[in-house]
Amino acid sequence: MEPVITSIHARDFAQKTIDLLRKKEPEPPEPPEPPLPKQEVQGPDRTIGITDYKKWETFQDEDEEATKKQAEEYAKTMCSQDHRKEIELFERPTREKLDAASTFKQQGNDSFKQGNFSLAALFYRKGILQLDYTFPDTKQEEEEFKQTELSLHLNMCIAKYHLEEYDEALTHSAQALRIHPNHPKALFRKAQVMFARDLYDEAETILESLDESSSQLKEVIQLKKKLAKKRDNYKDKQKVIYKAMFKE
After folding, report:
1. DSSP assignment of 27-61, as one string?
2. Which among 79, 120, 209, 216 is most buried, taking Cβ atoms within 10 Å?
3. What's the CATH architecture for 93-161?
4. Are residues 120 and 142 in contact, defined by beta-carbon separation less than 8 angstroms?
5. CATH 1.25.40.10-classified regions of the chain
6. Quick check: helix, strand or coil at residue 211?
7. What is the pTM of this model?
């Protein structure tokens, strides 16, 4: 099928042929058109020069829409949980929550004395939960709050220590030290955990930092003796290993 030449194309072709026959000198290039003046266009169709800001705004809208959708999904997840107990606990009077925390602490102490460390830890955790939703109003309540919180974390630490849950024990010793930095009992609890994990250097460093007038002095001395014995046993084992290595 032959190509169809419209009148417009034929006219262009004829003009080019005539120009070639006349050997017309090439015309100088036309000067570039001056740039269009910048116009501030309000609304969604914002195009300045060759930059289409509408595309950028569309991209931003899509990003914001995705973020909004993620937030809505997270809100749905949170709303699907039942927070009535937390709200009820939060709304209870401060005095009532402080008394409940002290009661749970005493119940935990009773269970601990009976050797039921799991039950003791459960009571201590309930006491800590009471304080998580407690915000003291007076200086007296603030002091009572701090003392109860300190005791609960210290007791939880030793309960977890006996359950050989050393990571949690260290967490609660750290919480106790946050409340009362350099607290002797909190440091000693931490040293106990380090010793149980065979971290003798760390345990020794902590024990050496304790004041000899500390109320934990008797326990500190006992732990130091255990630490020295462990080191001696370790040295003896090393000697046996070296002898076996170089034995003919």
Report:
1. PPPPPPPPPPPP----SS--EETTEEHHHHHHHHH
2. 120
3. Alpha Horseshoe (1.25)
4. no
5. 93-161
6. coil
7. 0.62
